[in-house]
What we know:
With 250 residues, the protein is of the alpha+beta class. It is 27% helix and 34% strand. The longest helix has 14 residues, at 9-22.
Amino acid sequence: MHDESGINLHVQVERYLRGLISSGELHPGDPIPSEAELCRLFHASRSPVRQAIASLRTAGLLSGGQGRRSIVQSQASTQSFSTLLSFTEWCHSMGVTPGQRTLELARRPGHPDITEQLGLEPGSPVVEVLRLRSMNGTPAMLERAAFPLEVGQHLLAFDTDSGSIFEHLSKQGVELYRAENTIGAIPAPEEDAELLGVAPHSPLLRVQRRTSDSRGRVLEVADDRYLPELTEFTIVNTRAGAAGLTQQPR
């Protein structure tokens, strides 16, 4: 379900509630607006409102439910990997100022590994981006991403130093619906070490991501490399449901 902006209503509701929490307008222990209030505010049915609230519960931002008004949890600084957020949105949800410096933006024939992951013919053109991301002015992560040309062409005239690539693509009508994240660790190659200001072979957290639309078509492959002292991943297990993986700054 979408409104005129083309963004799913449940995503709009979720972003609105996240904004209330990250801005401090809602504090731990405060109830969120009722379902009826949110339905009126977004001219929505209860289904997308409940979907947004369920997503925030999974993220550990809300507790309650089952007939009770959901309230803000004290651990509102975590981001769940069950919710697709950009680096910019994640930082804002923490009250952290994100930054970015574009080191490369190019259209070129894709490397065989990249085109295979994107489901393209070998040598098909792709748009690749390399950015240094920061948190409150401190280098935190190297972001490498590749897009099929039909998606990446929207970036060629965009100032990639100005903010979120995901937000810009969403405004262009690109549906970024689902992401698969593979998390590991690698020793920093010399180029990465120099850009992040660490010694070569220092440990880096690595998140490899494939983002697709609701039809399963892969629209982005990315390789993000974080300084481990600035972020960490936490897995939360419950007997009643699936494990939730969260990311938070140190």
